Amino acid sequence: MRVVVAGATGLIGTALLPLLRAKGHHVTALVRDESKAVAADTVVADALDPVAVRGALLAARPDVVVHQLTALRQMSAEAFETTARLRTEGTANLIMAAREAGAAKLVVQSISFATAPLGDPVLTEDAPLYLDAPDPGWARTVQAVAEMERLVLGTPDIAGTILRYGTLFGPQTQYDPAGPFGAMIGRGQIPIPSTATGVTSFLHVQDAALAALSAVDSDVTGVFNIADDEPAEGATWLPEYARLLGGPPPRQIPSDLAEKALGWFANYQLTAMRGARTDRARTELGWKPTVSWRHGLASG
Ligand SMILES: NC(=O)c1ccc[n+]([C@@H]2O[C@H](COP(=O)([O-])OP(=O)(O)OC[C@H]3O[C@@H](n4cnc5c(N)ncnc54)[C@H](OP(=O)(O)O)[C@@H]3O)[C@@H](O)[C@H]2O)c1
Asked: Which amino acid residue places its CA nearest to atom 47 of ligand 1?
């Protein structure tokens, strides 16, 4: 098949291109900076420019469009806002252009941890999203995710597959031992709230790319959680990751001081966030994770 990958120069995109080529697909990378080397034919467009995206997809004539666009190499408020726009405007641009170019399928990166912190510690794809999160930044992220998913699943004539990735780890991610969180955890700079029962479902970048490959090759559509086999409470993964990095155990702080010390999101992750069940991806997509955080987090 002819596959266009938007976000081909990113961590997941870079891992995905060789997997697609090895399966015999004709791959075209949609890039915004022509000078970046990619192992595929290229078309050039800023995803937020509808005219450029239309021209790029009409030139590439894809059967499948894969959307792996984020601006999250930086963890700033601006990067989250740009990512929200990539999820809403960027997705709308890709959909409009994909329809005109005759594509039959969209495969789109979403997140598994946008669910509201209600009910079981580990949730399925049917759980409600945290649209009314008390933190305005996180509410904006979740609302953009919901809008993206609605656009993709509601597009007539194009089959949509949403991959809700868990918290990414692996080389060059935030959780790389040399990355921002990894380095802070290794130095004992992230304290742990006294009740750290929030659950994180992690996902290695290579497993994220393998899930995207399964989605491209499958006729199945819909929403799929994609995460490792070991959803873990903060009280489990944070001290274990510190130990694997050879760092000191995280300092415990009273729960009522934790939000001030950690910031809203990290405190939420450690105390209230829910993990993700992946049964649907296993049975319907035929995908399963190859590495868990316990074995891969500290090796980058
Ligand atoms: N589930 C998760 O935990 C999660 C999800 C997303 C991201 N992240 C974090 O973000 C980092 C990277 O992950 P990733 O592979 O998803 O993202 P990434 O490596 O930042 O890649 C994003 C891709 O989107 C492209 N892009 C961004 N804005 C664009 C625009 N306006 N037009 C066209 N292309 C645009 C980038 O192109 P350029 O190369 O030109 O910038 C790049 O190819 C990691 O550190 C990860 O931890 C985590």
From this structure: 173
- Neighbour tally for 235: CB within 10 Å: 19
70 CB contacts (<8 Å, ≥6 apart)? Answer: 7, 10, 83, 86, 109
Tokens read off for 86: 């990539």
- Measured CA to CA, the distance from residue 16 to residue 49 in angstroms comes to 24
Q: What is the pLDDT of residues 53-83, one digit of tens each?
A: 999 999 999 999 999 999 998 888 999 999 9
Which residues form ligand 1's pocket by a CB distance below 6 Å? 7-13, 32-33, 36, 46-48, 68-73, 86, 111, 165, 167-168, 173-174
Task: Determine contact, residues 69/5, Cβ cutoff 8 Å.
Answer: no
Cα 45–Cα 48–Cα 52 angle in degrees, nearest 5: 35
- As a whole number of angstroms, the distance between CA 110 and CA 145 comes to 7
Percentages (nearest 5) of helix, strand, coil residues in the chain: 45, 20, 35
> Strands 159-165 and 64-67: what pairing?
unpaired
pLDDT tens digit sequence for 145-197 = 999 999 999 998 899 999 999 999 999 999 999 988 899 999 999 999 999 99
Distance from C-alpha of 70 to C-alpha of 7, rounded to nearest angstrom? 8
Query: What phi and psi values does residue 67 have, to the nearest 5 degrees?
Result: -110, 110
